[in-house]
Design brief:
The chain is α+β, with helices and mostly antiparallel strands. The chain is about 20% helix and about 35% strand. The protein has helices at about 1-10, 125-135, 280-290, 315-330, 350-360, 375-385, 395-410; strands at about 20-25, 30-35, 40-50, 50-60, 65-75, 80-85, 90-95, 100-105, 115, 140-145, 150-155, 170-175, 180-185, 190-195, 200-210, 230-240, 245-255, 260-265, 275, 280, 295-300, 335-345, 365-370. The chain has a 15-stranded mixed sheet with strand order 8-7-6-5-4-3-2-1-15-14-13-12-11-10-9, covered by helices on one side. The radius of gyration is 25 Å and the shape is elongated. The protein starts with a helix and ends in a 12-residue tail after the last helix. The relative contact order is 0.10. Residues about 1-10 have low confidence and may be disordered.
């Protein structure tokens, strides 16, 4: 009976079951679900950005709200990372996929509870509840491979309130070794409405009582290639202008003549040669169909993705343009390619790059644009950021995005991993 009462009291100190959608700076979105389960409070998250996608599950004790376990399945720069973690008072048991469990003993203060924190919303969404459950006692937070950092909760009446945050919200400053943060939340529901730290802000866009099924689809079966294979596939590599080696696949029709050729140009983000989106391999499908139709097709991994060298996080727009030019130059060097019949097919961001590459060049036979931008880039960003935003939150979100765009134009706000935004 007492255990049931304690559990009910703890459940009253945390946000209601349901689905919470958060906007993180620069168009990144996080969908968090909170639900009651026999083994505790289960928090699931699906977060996606231009460079990564991740699904996480965190289980909290139903009475103390202390973390019991954490698991992650992520795709970062085309590479998959999967692990599960059991959180104990003085150690972590970590099990990467298909590997043995190992124990980590970080330098812990044994008197303070330990919480794992990734760079997204699964822990911040619960911190108002954790602060109440701990009654203001500091906690330890382990971020990535760093040593645990002490985090203190201090209520603040002087923290500047972001536009759109309800006037009844309580502000707490989190004194953290990695830098102070401020959270605004409802003192009656413990729902986190906003979060701000140096160079980063997060805001609640919407809530619905239904708990959305956040099921990862990395293992879903891709669409099969249709029809027979009437071409030869070859793994190739070629140097960029700055000597970075780019790796790709060239498919050439099985005939004796010099084939017309196509360079496939990827969309935004950590795209591999197949432009893998979930279970589907978009560029592989295109290359299969086009090479069966008589065209040679070159598709390649972006810098820092797959088998290509370089660093995606520091790649600039001129480098992306130069890499396409290097792909063209490679095709022109091959004896099985007709150098006078080279076409560019660009998708999304690639459809913005293709005209810039082809402009002023007489050796490009044509360009094909798939989902090209039809409006200015700042308008595209505004549309993406405000998608699904509630009418109440829309003015504040628009104002924040206009400010970010102005700072990007002025060169005072560098977007991590995307320096060419300027």
């Amino acid at each position: 009976m007492l255990a049931a009462l304690l559990t009910a009291a703890a459940l009253a100190l945390r946000p209601p079951d349901g689905t919470y959608t958060y906007l993180i700076d620069h168009g990144m979105r996080s969908v968090v679900t909170i639900s009651s389960a026999p083994n505790g409070v289960v928090v699931r998250e699906h977060v996606s950005s231009l460079l990564s996608e991740a699904f996480t599950t965190t289980v909290y004790d139903p009475v103390t709200l202390r973390q019991q376990s954490y698991s992650v399945d992520a795709m970062v720069a085309g590479k998959r990372a999967t692990a599960s973690v059991v959180v104990a008072p003085d150690h972590l048991d970590i099990t990467p996929k298909n590997q043995k469990t190992y124990t980590l003993h970080p330098a812990l203060d044994g008197t303070l509870p330990l919480y794992l924190m990734d760079t997204n919303m699964s822990l911040p969404a619960m911190l108002p509840s954790i602060a109440a459950a701990e009654k203001g006692t500091p906690i330890q937070v382990l971020v990535g491979a760093n040593l645990p950092a002490r985090l203190e909760f201090v209520e603040s009446a002087r923290a500047p309130r972001p536009a759109g945050v309800p006037s009844a919200d309580r502000a707490e400053v989190l004194h953290f070794a990695l830098g102070d943060c401020t959270m605004w939340y409802s003192p009656s529901t413990f729902v986190l409405d906003a979060w701000a730290e140096r160079g980063l802000s997060m805001r609640l866009l919407s809530y619905e009582p239904r708990v959305t099924d956040l099921t990862e689809d990395f293992d879903a079966a891709p669409l099969p290639l249709a029809g027979a294979v009437t071409y030869t596939s070859e793994d190739v590599s070629f140097p960029a202008d700055d000597s970075v080696e780019l790796a790709g696949t060239l498919t050439v029709p099985n005939n004796e003549r010099r084939a017309p050729a196509i360079v496939l140009i990827h969309g935004t983000g950590a795209e591999d040669r197949d432009e893998t989106l979930g279970p589907n391999h978009v560029f592989m499908q295109l290359a299969h169909a086009l090479s069966n139709a008589g065209y040679a097709v070159l598709r390649y991994d972006k810098r820092g993705v797959g088998k290509s060298a370089g660093n995606l996080m520091t790649t600039t727009r001129p480098q992306l343009l130069s890499d396409v030019a290097s792909a063209i130059r490679y095709l022109q060097s091959r004896k099985d390619i007709n150098p006078n019949l080279i076409f560019l097919v660009g998708h999304s961001e690639g459809a913005e790059l293709a005209p810039s590459v082809a402009a002023g060049r007489a050796d490009i036979a044509g360009i094909i644009l798939l989902e090209p931008p039809a409006v200015r880039f700042d308008q595209i960003m505004m549309q993406q950021v405000t998608r699904d935003v509630s009418p109440e939150a829309l003015p504040a979100v628009e104002d924040a995005e206009r400010k970010s765009i102005a700072e990007i134009r002025a060169g005072t706000l560098a977007v991590p991993g995307l320096p060419w935004y300027r």
